[in-house]
Write a structure and sequence with these properties.
- By secondary structure, the chain is α+β, with helices and mostly antiparallel strands.
- It folds into two domains: 3-78, OB fold (Dihydrolipoamide Acetyltransferase, E2P); 80-263, de novo design (two linked rop proteins), CATH 1.20.1440.
- Helices cover 37% and strands 21% of the residues.
- It has nine helices and eight strands.
- The protein has helices at residues 80-83, 86-102, 110-125, 130-144, 161-164, 182-190, 202-213, 226-240, 245-248; strands spanning 3-16, 20-27, 31-37, 56-62, 68-77, 170-173, 178-180, 198-200.
- A five-stranded mixed barrel has the order 1-2-3-5-4. The chain has a three-stranded antiparallel sheet with strand order 7-6-8.
- Strand 1 (3-16) and strand 2 form a beta hairpin.
- Helix 2 (86-102) runs antiparallel to helix 3, helix 3 (110-125) packs antiparallel against helix 4 (130-144) and helix 4 (130-144) runs parallel beside helix 8 (226-240).
- The protein is elongated.
- Bound molecules: zinc ion.
- Zinc ion (ZN) binds at residues 154, 156-157, 159, 181, 183-184.
Amino acid sequence: MAVYKSKGIVLRSIRYGEADRILDLYTRDAGLVSAIAKGIRRTKSRFGGRLEPLSCVDFLAYEGRTLDTVTQVEVLRSFHGVRENLKRLEAAGGMLSAVRALSGGDEADRRVFNLLYHALDALEGRETGFEAVGAAFALKLSILAGYTPRLDACVSCERDLAEVTGEGPLYFAPPLGGVLCAGCRSASREAGLAGDSYPLEPDILAALQDLVVRPIREVVVEEGLEESVRRVVASHVLAHAPGNAASSNASFATPDRRTLRPA
Ligand SMILES: [Zn+2]
């Protein structure tokens, strides 16, 4: 049985039997891992600190057929400042869901681990703007997962968005992975391909572009736009989550742009 050591962030921690816990972790070296930690709830548990969701831990485990077994664990950082504030916790909960939705399987990605760690750190360190951190996290995660949203040009005709202003409103088309210009949107609607596209206000687009480029510690979303930004990001994540019906027939991976070009 292969023994390995890694750092991980606890996504979920479920009681199992008298004294055990089953943990889902996003690890730095092995991606998503499910593991059993035995004897954790005994008072003199060798695991010491509590293994709650969001905790960042250093652990030693051996591989099992379905579940790995954690033999040693040390809590490096508990992020209790996130857990103890409802708004921060909500934002963190959304981040953990995005990790589950976009991390398909065994692939380890240190960048995902680092992004999650820095996002939790950013949440704990600030007093406002938690939604901005959550939205920035999900956008950056979608980019790491290979689903970079197209926010600079129309996903269909590929014209720069600066060129198409004045032709009508812009739309966001989650299954297509980005912005559609007015012309392409009506053409694709006639062909029955626009799916769930919806209008995207210029200030929301600017906020999304800003979230992509700014380091996660520094992200801000103008007051009043947070909910709209969150909804666009959530629709993007949902459309590309592996196993989601909307993503399996999406033309995002192999876009057939010809069918979407305006006549
Ligand atoms: Zn277009």
